[in-house]
Write a structure and sequence with these properties.
Oligomer: single chain
Radius of gyration: 15 Å
Helix content: 10-25%
Order of helices and strands: EHHEEHEEEE
Structural class: alpha/beta
Number of strands: 7
Number of helices: 3
Strand content: 35-45%
Length: 150
């Protein structure tokens, strides 16, 4: 991605600051060609599946309700804490760009879920792979989300 001196350094200002849709890659014989052990989106925890689907939803409060009250989001170095900040973050990004997201890989280890997606859209650079790591609370809500360029 090319960014000028006046551009914030967070990659999330680019691809995730908009509405989008989630596509799943073709699965010959029902298997993901990238990773044969990838869970289907229906196998992901409810909050993670809903978060992935909510990217195309312009309701920032609905997205924020997937998180605990004291949740923390690290958007490539930009820290957000709590539902109010998460809703503000979503509100700010909801109109800047449009994109599609293709699920490339997903894995879980207990309450930690890692998802890699390819975003393509009308943002600078046009394409980026992102890894989002979700830590879920006992209530199934997202306690922590770390987003990084893959």
């Amino acid at each position: 991605m090319v960014m000028d001196a006046g551009t914030r350094s967070s990659w999330l200002d680019l691809p995730l600051r908009g509405s989008g849709s989630v596509r799943r890659p073709a699965r010959p014989n029902g298997r993901n060609p990238m990773n044969a052990t990838e869970p289907e989106s229906s196998e992901l925890p409810d909050a993670v599946s809903a978060y992935l689907a909510a990217k195309s939803n312009t309701d920032p409060e609905a997205l924020a309700r997937l998180f605990t009250e004291a949740a923390f989001v690290d958007d490539n170095g930009e820290g957000l804490r709590g539902r109010t900040e998460i809703a503000r973050w979503r509100r700010e990004v909801s109109t800047a760009f449009t994109f599609t997201a293709t699920l490339l890989d997903a894995s879980s280890n207990g309450p930690r879920v890692s998802v890699t997606e390819r975003l393509e859209g009308d943002f600078p650079g046009g394409r980026v792979d992102l890894t989002s790591t979700f830590d879920l609370g006992a209530d199934g809500l997202i306690q922590r989300l770390i987003i990084r360029v893959a």
